[in-house]
């Protein structure tokens, strides 16, 4: 018979310990109690636990000390912390230290039960390594894979930074797949592609009759992702009015549908991403500082393709197999041309380049000429100090802007033209002139 999971409860308030213990026993769990950091350390050293739930303030130390002890064990024990209501700083510090999740006082029993159910799945995490889907053997990618594996063990909000096409959504999906929420939905939302007038109903859902055309009740993104992960891509594009509403949801862990009078509890992990500099936007007053700190509890920065040029041949071979299984290969000069090119559009641009080359090559052998890469376009905007020849410089800037707009709209050309403020016909002409497609 499989033994019941055992939970260590660490708190110096007997009444709260009694309440939590009663709740967990009703769930069929076994519990031990500790009233101090010293007592918690002794129990962790002696008994294997499936979860530790600790208060942040203890007579002889802090919950951070318990987290450090539990994490250093040969078989690390996941830890969730209890923080004083409104003390977001403690919660953030605990999550950064490796806590699985947190609860605010007064402890809501329904949230406690949800946290326990989610936490007990930690030992059952997948043993295979989905992070290997991130192709590349460079030091930068090894560091990213290691960090993703660590992020998957927590419930902390993650913000992923990086240029367009650098793999931010792939990283977010891997954090989800490696984590305890992998059997629940992963919902990806492009914040820049939703009209401002529809944002509230799209994110939070609506009740029948809430507005003209609302013929039935409808769930929003938060309800669709309940129990799983909500990925907010291009979060910097959220208008300030929506940032306020999103902040409240993250603080209260509840949403109210448009037209509803009651809030509904939600259990969602938030991962956000943008190619813009959020800290700079905060300084400029274009992004709320309080929301920034809520989203950016733990950060992950995806390297650009030019920062890991040694990975390009391997990525190219993978993409060629995907585009035309087993039929095409790169010659030596083509591989060198790819490594020497800066790829302002990163992996997405590399894939487009290879797809074009496949159509032009002969005998399934791609040459440097088939790639049609020009050095002037390949110079990265960050490293190019010259504005001459002028046409090359202007082409470079135009290409970067178009690629960013295409990435933002998930390569919907009509929407990209709207973002750029040009007609669809004009965009199509520019794409052909710059060799983007």
Strands side by side in the biggest sheet: 2-1-3-6-7
Radius of gyration: 25 Å
Largest sheet features: 5 strands, parallel
- Count of helical segments? 20
- Name the structural class: alpha/beta
CATH topology of the largest domain: Rossmann fold
Roughly what fraction of the amino acids lie in strands? 5-15%
- Indicate the mean pLDDT: 85
The fourth-level CATH homologous superfamily of the largest domain is P-loop containing nucleotide triphosphate hydrolases
CATH architecture of the largest domain: 3-Layer(aba) Sandwich
Tally of strands: 16
Unreliable parts: 122-129, 376-385
Helicity, as a percent range: 40-55%
Q: What number of domains?
A: 3
Q: Give the overall silhouette.
A: globular
Question: What kind of oligomer do you see?
Answer: single chain
The first-to-last residue Cα distance is 61 Å
* CATH class descriptor name of the largest domain: Alpha Beta
Characterize this entry briefly:
The protein has 20 helices and 16 strands.
Question: What this model shows, in words?
Answer:
By secondary structure, the chain is an alpha/beta fold. It folds into three domains: 6-124, Response regulator (Rossmann fold); 131-301, Rossmann fold (3-Layer(aba) Sandwich); 306-434, Helicase, Ruva Protein, domain 3 (Orthogonal Bundle), CATH 1.10.8.60. It is 45% helix and 14% strand. The protein has helices at residues 14-26, 37-46, 63-71, 88-97, 109-119, 139-151, 168-178, 199-204, 221-224, 240-252, 278-283, 289-295, 312-323, 332-340, 346-360, 368-371, 375-378, 390-408, 413-420, 424-434, and strands at 6-10, 30-34, 51-55, 57-58, 61-62, 79-83, 101-104, 158-161, 186-190, 229-233, 254-255, 264-265, 269-274, 298-301, 329-330, 365-366. The strands form five sheets. The chain has a five-stranded parallel β-sheet, with helices on both faces. A five-stranded parallel β-sheet has the order 9-10-13-8-14. It has a two-stranded antiparallel ribbon with strand order 4-5. A hairpin with a 2-residue loop joins strand 4 (57-58) and strand 5. Helix 2 (37-46) packs parallel to helix 3, helix 13 crosses helix 15 and helix 18 (390-408) crosses helix 19 (413-420). The longest helix is centred in the last third of the chain and has 19 residues, at 390-408.
């Amino acid at each position: 018979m499989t033994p019941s999971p055992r939970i260590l409860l660490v708190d110096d308030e007997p009444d709260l310990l009694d309440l939590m213990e009663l709740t967990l026993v009703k769930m069929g769990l076994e519990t031990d109690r500790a009233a101090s950091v010293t007592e918690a350390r002794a129990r962790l050293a002696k008994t294997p636990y499936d979860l530790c739930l600790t208060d942040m303030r203890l007579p002889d130390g802090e919950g951070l000390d318990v987290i450090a002890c539990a994490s250093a064990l040969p078989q690390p024990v996941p830890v969730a912390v209890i923080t004083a209501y409104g003390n977001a700083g403690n919660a953030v510090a605990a999550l950064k230290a490796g806590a699985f999740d947190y609860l605010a006082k007064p402890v809501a029993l329904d949230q406690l039960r949800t946290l326990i159910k989610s936490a007990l799945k930690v030992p059952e995490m997948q043993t295979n390594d989905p992070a290997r889907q991130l192709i590349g053997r460079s030091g930068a990618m090894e560091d990213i894979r290691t960090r993703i594996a660590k992020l998957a063990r927590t419930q902390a909000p993650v913000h992923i930074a990086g240029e367009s096409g650098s793999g931010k959504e792939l990283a977010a999906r891997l954090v989800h797949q490696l984590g305890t929420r992998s059997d629940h939905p992963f919902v990806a939302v492009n914040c820049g592609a939703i009209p401002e007038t529809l944002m509230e109903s799209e994110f939070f859902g609506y009740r029948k009759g809430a507005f003209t055309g609302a013929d039935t009740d409808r769930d929003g993104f938060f309800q669709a992702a309940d129990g799983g992960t909500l990925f907010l891509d291009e979060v910097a594009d959220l208008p300030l009015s929506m940032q306020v509403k999103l902040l409240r949801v993250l603080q209260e862990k509840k949403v109210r549908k448009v037209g509803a009078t009651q809030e509904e509890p939600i259990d969602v992990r938030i991962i956000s991403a943008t190619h813009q500099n959020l800290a700079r936007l905060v300084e400029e007053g274009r992004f709320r500082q309080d929301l920034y700190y809520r989203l950016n509890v733990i950060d992950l920065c995806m390297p650009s393709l030019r920062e890991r040029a040694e990975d390009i041949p391997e990525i190219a071979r993978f993409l060629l197999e995907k585009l035309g299984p087993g039929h095409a290969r790169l010659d030596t000069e083509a591989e060198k041309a790819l490594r020497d090119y800066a790829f302002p559009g990163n992996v997405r641009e590399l894939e487009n380049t290879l797809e074009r080359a496949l159509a032009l090559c002969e005998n399934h052998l791609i040459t440097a000429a088939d790639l049609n890469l020009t050095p002037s376009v390949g110079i990265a905007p960050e490293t190019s100090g010259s504005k001459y020849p002028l046409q090359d410089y202007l082409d470079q800037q135009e290409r970067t802007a178009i690629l960013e707009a295409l990435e933002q709209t998930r390569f919907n050309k009509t929407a990209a033209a709207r973002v750029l403020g040009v007609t669809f016909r004009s965009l199509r002409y520019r794409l052909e002139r710059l060799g983007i497609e």
